[in-house]
Design brief:
Number of domains: 2
Structural class: alpha/beta
Distance between the termini: 27 Å
Radius of gyration: 23 Å
Strand order of the largest sheet: 10-9-11-12-14
CATH class of the largest domain: Alpha Beta
CATH topology of the largest domain: Rossmann fold
Length: 554
Amino acid sequence: MVTLEPRGGLLQVREAWYEHLSLKPSSCTPFLEDNPAGDNGEQSIYRRRWPNSFTVLDDSEELFPNLSRQGRMSLPTSFLLGSGAAGGRGRNGRPPHYTPTTSGELRAPIPFTCGNETSSEIPACPRAAAASPSPSPTAALLLSSEQRPAAAQSATCPEYFRYIHSDLSPWREAGIAREAVERARGMATFRLVVVAGRAYVEKYHPAYQTRDVFTLWGILQLLARYPGRVPDLDLMFFCGDIPVVRAAAYPDRSEAPPLFMYCTEDAALDIVFPDWTFWGWPEVNIRPWAPFLEEVARESRRTPWLDRKPYAFWKGNANVCGLRRDLMRCNKGSDSGKDWNARLFRQDWGYANRNGFKDSNLAKQCTYRYKICVQGRGWSVSEKYILACGSPMLRVDTPFRDFFSRGFVAGRHYWPIDAARMCPSIKFAVDWGNAHPAQAQRMGEEGSSFLRNELSMDYVYDYMLHLLTHYARLLRYRPTVPENATELCLESMACTASGRAREFMMESMEKYVADYEPCALPGPFTADELAELAQRDVEMRSKMKKMEEQEEET
């Protein structure tokens, strides 16, 4: 039985959840990141996250038809409560995201110029900037879809946006004082302050590679895309892989220091923010998210799913974590002498860099029917890239989750793999998928469709906007520019960059001011909704595990 425990308005699945998954939280003792290539410290992108809920694919066409012999549950089509489809709307019950308000008019370009690039001086930030909103349009953004005027109605955000309320719930009642923000300084990589629409940063600790650079670049794109909509704010940001604000240290959750980072877990209170790779990862030649999605869609069409190799693929640094070393035992030709239907390859990022990344293009790794996702030392950015191919993702259980993966559904978007039984679990998943190609192919399509429809850059920016807007509302003081902070703008970052970093900045730069409303943020989950989601997820996993055990007995 799963134990549900209240946490700042949320119900969290605790130790019994790990016991159910046969996963020890310390199976890979982490601190920062994978360093896969040894000498040069290049870092693996093959890391992972954590599921939250589940459903079958559809009431009329279930993914697991044989579950009916085991007393299958009857579930609604929508896996998140209150997200049923609406008549006359597009996929996922929502109209198209953009509804331009400048009918017939040209879109306003975002000004940018590097001027004299022969100068070694850092370009000065232009003085003309959008004013900070007060109280409009920020207040308008916070209205529910029912409260908005009819002319201002916009599409409802994806359901995972509801976790914004959950992440900020520890401070909902008491608010956030300046002292609380400053208590996170020792853990933070940098401090970001936005005043009157301008961004200022004070750096405290070095980030790995260019994580901080591209995170800040993404925030500048948000300010340019939605001028005047980002309110004054003051926040601390940690660029690591492991949540550091431990819930156990703060019996009174309102006393926890608010700290933004890329992931969270049940035992942590960190505030989840989109990771830097959405704007590119130059050190390993991973393009910004929007062009990557276009490229991987083209590559996926080159090899239809039925023509792909009928095995599970993984490529990464196997030396960073015991869990990955265990995974390598599932490889064909391993000491076990068995074929577990896995084809696993070691990635040397140092060699890849010297070789011009010729064999490391993630968009071209769509030639296998199944793809494995396994964590490194901690949270992983790799999940969205693995899911993008349209091949079912075999996801080894892990406690870490980022902002969008909380919308994933076991049995719909991915196949959960028991970390304690990786080899037989992988073999069963592949055997089952090859025996049920229509259902397996649909799972792959559901995963890649989630990325295209729920994780476009439009929604990444809208998530950032809603999160920062609601965070700013909790501040109990007026943010001011720190004495040692430096102003950031498009020119000061892009014009001083070079090589692949500059290429990716230019490729991910927003070109026009948004002439449409952001999506409308749904309300928070209730405790009952969260409890039901967690219980459904457990029941689906139990049924899938039972299928596997029954297969072994035959």
